[in-house]
C-alpha cells in the first residue's frame, strides 16, 4: 500500500483513476488543480504524485518545477499524464524532473501497472 496524490482536473478521469488505484490497495489524496496539488505536497509525504499536465491555476509543469526546487521533496516520484504526447513535450517534462510520462488516453490498468513499476523500481 502506498500513499499517492492524484492531481487531475477532469472529474470523470479523476474518479476512474482513483477507483482503479484504490482497488489496487493504495491510499489516495485528490487535488483538482495545480495550486491545490502543490499545497498538499508541501503538507504531506507521498510515495508517488500523479500530475495532469494541463490543469487550472498551475500546470503540471509548474507544480513539477516547484517540487524539484524544494530540498525536502526533491526525490519525490512524479508521473505526468498528458494529452500532449509529442516527443519534444516529453523531453521538456523529463528535463524539468518528471520521473515518467504517460500519454492520454490510457487504460486504467496501464496506469496501475505504471504506478506499480514506479513504486517498485
Automatic annotation (TrEMBL):
Pfam families: Response_reg (PF00072). The keyword Phosphoprotein applies. It comes from the Bacteria. This is Response regulator. SMART domains: REC. Residues 3-119 form the Response regulatory domain. Signal peptide: none annotated. CDD domains: REC_OmpR (cd17574). Keywords: Phosphoprotein, Two-component regulatory system. InterPro entries: Bact_response_regulator, CheY-like_superfamily, Sig_transdc_resp-reg_receiver. Gene3D superfamilies: 3.40.50.2300. The modification 4-aspartylphosphate is found at residue 52.
Amino acid at each position: 500500500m502506498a500513499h499517492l496524490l492524484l492531481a487531475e482536473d477532469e472529474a470523470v478521469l479523476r474518479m476512474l483513476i482513483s477507483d482503479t488505484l484504490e482497488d489496487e490497495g493504495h491510499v489516495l489524496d485528490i487535488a483538482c488543480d495545480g495550486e491545490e496539488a502543490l499545497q498538499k505536497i508541501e503538507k504531506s509525504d507521498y510515495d508517488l504524485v500523479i500530475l495532469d499536465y494541463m490543469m487550472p491555476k498551475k500546470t503540471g509543469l509548474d507544480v513539477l518545477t516547484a517540487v524539484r526546487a524544494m530540498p525536502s521533496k526533491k526525490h519525490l516520484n512524479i508521473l505526468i499524464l498528458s494529452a500532449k504526447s509529442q516527443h519534444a513535450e516529453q523531453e521538456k517534462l523529463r528535463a524539468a524532473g518528471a520521473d515518467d510520462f504517460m500519454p492520454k488516453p490510457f487504460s486504467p490498468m496501464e496506469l496501475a501497472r505504471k504506478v506499480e513499476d514506479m513504486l517498485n523500481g
